[in-house]
Design brief:
12% strand, two-stranded antiparallel ribbon, 6 helices, single chain, 171 residues, 5 strands, globular, three-stranded mixed beta sheet
Length: 171
């Protein structure tokens, strides 16, 4: 193990935010990992332009015959979730965290469980894992995870879509 070396979170946030990716998710499983978000938590709301774009998408993609209360189809759901950039982090805790006594820490085990089941233990059961579902998995552990957004977050979501689902939607 490396001791006496560290990387300042402020520098890591800047480096990650500068990457040319629309969606970024950072998973941090270290003591005090929640400090990554200390100065990154800001209230977010859609701009009028973003809201208009979402409304237009809803009018063109949703099944209007069922009205506003119908569940949207998967294509619309994913377009809505992914149309704006996202910068999320989730950390195993804000202070000292439990390492566990197995191959993985309790936090890492919950992250892996979410990935392995594709979120299908959640309410949706759609083979798509959203950031909110990942948070639900992680909240079940012995640690108290910290999560939020950082940098140039624009209100999008981080969604993991298996290739089989993506190919079916593109067909």
């Amino acid at each position: 193990p490396v001791t006496g070396k560290y990387f300042q979170f402020v520098n890591l946030r800047k480096m990650l935010d500068a990457l040319d990716f629309k969606h970024i998710l950072l998973v941090i499983d270290i003591c005090f990992g929640g400090k990554f978000g200390d100065d990154a938590r800001t209230a977010f709301s859609f701009t009028p332009e973003q809201k208009a774009e979402l409304d237009e998408l809803a009018l063109t993609e949703s099944d209007r015959s069922k009205g506003d209360y119908a569940a949207v189809d998967m294509r619309y759901y994913l377009k809505r979730k992914l149309m704006f950039a996202s910068r999320y982090f989730i950390a195993s805790g804000i202070g000292s965290v439990r390492d566990g006594n197995a191959q993985h820490s309790p936090f890492a085990r919950n992250v892996l469980d979410a990935l392995e089941t594709k979120g299908n233990k959640s309410i949706q059961r759609d083979d798509v894992l959203t950031f909110d579902e990942l948070k639900m998995y992680c909240d079940k552990g012995v640690n108290m995870p910290i999560h939020g957004h950082f940098g140039s977050h624009k209100g999008g979501d981080f969604v993991l879509v298996p290739r089989t689902v993506r190919e079916a939607l593109e067909a």
